[in-house]
């Protein structure tokens, strides 16, 4: 007996060694691309879905393009890929999906052909509007981008229009629309462009511009700006090719016997002290450039002058007055400035002026440019500003102006640039603003109230609407009842309940509150938004039942309430939404049966009710829907408690159902 026991381990080893080895798994998986269909056109981020199965389980699926792996894989059902087409050239691509099982077997799907076309996705290009220069720098200016998903500007440069382009600078701030260069030769041709790139990486280059000059320009005309206490002063020549000033004196107005009394090649030397009595003398100033061209200005002692900030300015000859950032001038703008009626350009910006804009500014009817911005001006915009009918540029931004925009602004029909932002302007914008040539004025950061004139409603910018009628406050922001048609507040970190006041925004077409931390129930007032096409409340912590008032939204096309904690049954009123194409209620805690009225949704092509607690039998009317039942991407009711018998149209696709409580 003892010997038998000693032999037992050996006998067992012999027995095990004789056992046949397990058969290896050689059955490959199956895989089929379900979306999109072959021949479809895609752009930007394209979603590709597939179904795959295997006798021993699918390990992963992998996306291949033109026979090369993209590296995109998915290991869990439903299988899908987000294919980024932005970096690809427009054209046709062969798409396959490779499925892998746990034993290393693989299968490639039947290929489909997709056409990539990102032409309409490229951002709107911006053009270079000017290339200017003075003695210190060359400045390239361009249009401001209107692209919502703006990422950056890139300033490009080349020696020739068709030459290779180099990058000069990159700006990520959309409001920056100029770039300065300090080392340059204005007589050498330079070409400049601006490339705009969006957040997807798509880029566009607008029309460029050169600084090339075809022929030497005439030097700037000089004007006497000061003539008192025996001293003559004149405007400065800022031309790059400046050579000299010359001052002549004559006893006669025709300057026939003129004598050169002063000459200088110093650009900043613009003063001369007159010797003796000047009342019976006449003077002439010339400015000469490197080509020998001259500009000539005559001065008669006794011309009428206006004293401003300690300096006398000629009424007749002063056409350009630039005191921008000039010694940080303070106090009020004197009313006497209105006497300089030949002014064409007036720039008092970037000083410390206080008080109101004098109404006498309306006397300057020859003005084409008026800059009073970046000061501390208060009071209202004087209606007399409507007299300046030659204005092309009006810049009043960055002050503390109050009151309403005067209707007289509509008289400025030649205005191409209007800047009123960063003030305290309030009230209604007058419809007369549409008379201007400027179709995109800068009005942001005021307290201007809706409704806004239709011609500029896209350019009103951010407004503090706290004192306005006809607005709704949502999470600390104010929205116009009349003008708010789209509201995307997804991924904003909002908490608390959806305020019932949202139902006052009756012109809404699109509402997205997805992926926040909202709690509480869906307010029944949501049913007031009868113009809605899209309602997305997914990815929150909403509780309670779906309000029956949702049946009022008969224009709805897309309803997404998934990934919440909604309870109760699906209201039968959902059958009123006959325009609905997408209904996503999955990953909630919905109970009760699927209402038979769901069969009314004849346009529905996507229905996802999975991962709820729905019970009872599925109504036969579900077969009236326009659904591809085999496509798990567009139809899914798995993980519920739905009972047989199941409608024949989708019986094979019912997924996993807990039927323990079924009769």
Number of helices, counting only DSSP H or I runs of 4 residues or more: 1
From the spread of the alpha carbons, the general shape counts as elongated
Q: Low-confidence runs (pLDDT<50, min 5 residues)?
A: 1-5, 10-19
The CATH homologous superfamily of the largest domain is named Ribonuclease Inhibitor
How widely separated are the two ends? 62 Å
User: What does the average pLDDT come to?
Assistant: 87
Under the CATH scheme, the architecture of the largest domain is Alpha-Beta Horseshoe
Largest β-sheet summary: 7 strands, parallel
Query: Would you tell me which CATH topology of the largest domain applies?
Result: Leucine-rich repeat, LRR (right-handed beta-alpha superhelix)
What oligomeric assembly is this protein in?
Answer: single chain
Please give the order of strands in the largest beta sheet.
38-40-42-43-44-45-47
**Class from secondary-structure proportions:** mainly beta
Task: Give the radius of gyration.
Answer: 38 Å
Number of strands: 48
- Which CATH class of the largest domain is shown? Alpha Beta
β content, as a range? 25-35%
- Indicate the percent of residues in helices: under 10%
Number of domains: 4
Written description of the protein model:
The chain has 663 residues and is mainly beta. The protein has 4 domains: 30-119, Immunoglobulin-like (Sandwich), CATH 2.60.40; 122-210, Immunoglobulins (Immunoglobulin-like, Sandwich), CATH 2.60.40.10; 224-459, Leucine-rich repeat, LRR (right-handed beta-alpha superhelix) (Alpha-Beta Horseshoe), CATH 3.80.10; 471-653, Ribonuclease Inhibitor (Leucine-rich repeat, LRR (right-handed beta-alpha superhelix), Alpha-Beta Horseshoe). Helix content is 3%, strand content 33%. It has 1 helix and 48 strands. A 7-stranded parallel sheet has the order 38-40-42-43-44-45-47, with no helix packed on it. Strands 2, 4, 5, 7, 8 and 9 form a 6-stranded mixed sheet that branches. The longest helix is centred in the N-terminal third of the chain and has 17 residues, at 2-18. The protein is elongated. 28% of the residues are buried.
């Amino acid at each position: 007996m003892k010997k038998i026991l000693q032999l037992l381990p050996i006998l067992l080893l012999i027995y095990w060694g004789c056992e046949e080895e397990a058969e290896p798994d050689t059955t490959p998986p199956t895989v089929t691309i379900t979306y999109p269909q072959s021949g479809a056109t895609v752009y930007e981020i394209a979603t590709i879905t597939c179904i795959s199965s295997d006798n021993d389980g699918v390990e992963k699926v992998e996306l291949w393009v033109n026979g090369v792996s993209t590296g995109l894989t998915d290991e869990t059902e439903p299988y899908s890929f987000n294919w980024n087409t932005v970096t690809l050239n427009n054209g046709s691509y062969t798409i396959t999906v490779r499925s892998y099982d746990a034993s290393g077997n693989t299968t490639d799907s039947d290929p489909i052909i997709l056409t990539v076309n990102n032409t309409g996705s490229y951002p709107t290009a911006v053009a270079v509007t000017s290339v200017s220069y003075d003695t210190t720098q060359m400045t390239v200016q361009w249009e401001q981008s209107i692209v919502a998903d703006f990422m950056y500007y890139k300033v490009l440069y080349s020696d020739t229009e068709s030459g290779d382009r180099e990058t000069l600078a990159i700006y990520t701030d959309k409001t920056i629309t100029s770039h300065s260069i300090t080392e340059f030769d204005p007589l050498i041709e330079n070409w400049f462009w601006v490339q705009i790139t969006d957040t997807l990486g798509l880029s566009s280059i607008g029309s460029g511009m050169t600084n090339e000059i075809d022929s030497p320009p005439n030097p700037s005309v000089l004007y006497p700006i000061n003539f008192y206490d025996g001293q003559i002063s004149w405007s400065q020549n800022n031309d790059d090719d400046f050579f000299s000033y010359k001052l002549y004196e004559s006893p006669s107005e025709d300057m026939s016997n003129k004598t050169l009394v002063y000459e200088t090649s110093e650009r900043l030397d613009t003063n001369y002290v007159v010797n003796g009595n000047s009342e019976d003398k006449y003077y002439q100033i010339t400015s000469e450039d490197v080509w020998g061209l001259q500009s000539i200005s005559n001065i008669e002692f006794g011309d009428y002058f206006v004293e401003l900030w300690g300096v006398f300015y000629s009424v007749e000859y002063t056409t350009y007055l630039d005191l921008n950032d000039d010694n940080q001038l303070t106090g009020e703008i004197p009313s006497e400035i209105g006497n300089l009626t030949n002014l064409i350009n007036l720039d008092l910006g970037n000083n410390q002026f206080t008080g109101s804009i004098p109404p006498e500014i309306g006397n300057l009817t020859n003005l084409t440019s008026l800059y009073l911005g970046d000061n501390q001006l208060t009071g209202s915009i004087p209606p007399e500003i409507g007299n300046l009918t030659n204005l092309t540029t009006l810049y009043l931004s960055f002050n503390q102006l109050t009151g309403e925009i005067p209707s007289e602004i509509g008289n400025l029909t030649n205005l191409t640039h209007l800047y009123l932002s960063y003030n305290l302007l309030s009230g209604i914008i007058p419809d007369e603003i549409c008379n201007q040539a400027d179709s995109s004025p800068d009005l942001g950061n005021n307290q201007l109230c809706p409704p806004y004139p239709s011609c500029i409603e896209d350019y009103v910018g951010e407004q503090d609407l706290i004192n306005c009628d006809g607005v709704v406050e949502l999470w600390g922001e104010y929205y116009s009842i009349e003008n708010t048609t789209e509201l995307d507040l997804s991924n904003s970190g909002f908490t608390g309940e959806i305020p019932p006041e949202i139902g006052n925004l009756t012109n809404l077409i699109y509402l997205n509150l997805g992926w926040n931390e909202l709690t509480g129930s869906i307010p029944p007032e949501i049913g007031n938004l009868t113009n809605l096409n899209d309602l997305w409340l997914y990815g929150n912590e909403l509780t309670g039942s779906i309000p029956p008032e949702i049946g009022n939204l008969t224009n709805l096309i897309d309803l997404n309430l998934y990934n919440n904690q909604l309870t109760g049954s699906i209201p039968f009123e959902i059958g009123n939404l006959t325009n609905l194409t997408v209904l996503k209620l999955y990953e909630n805690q919905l109970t009760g049966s699927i209402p038979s009225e769901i069969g009314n949704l004849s346009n529905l092509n996507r229905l996802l009710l999975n991962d709820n607690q729905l019970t009872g039998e599925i109504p036969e009317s579900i077969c009236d829907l326009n659904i591809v039942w085999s496509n798990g991407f567009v139809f899914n009711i798995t993980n519920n408690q739905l009972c047989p018998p199941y409608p024949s149209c989708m019986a094979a696709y019912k997924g996993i159902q807990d039927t323990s409580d079924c009769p």
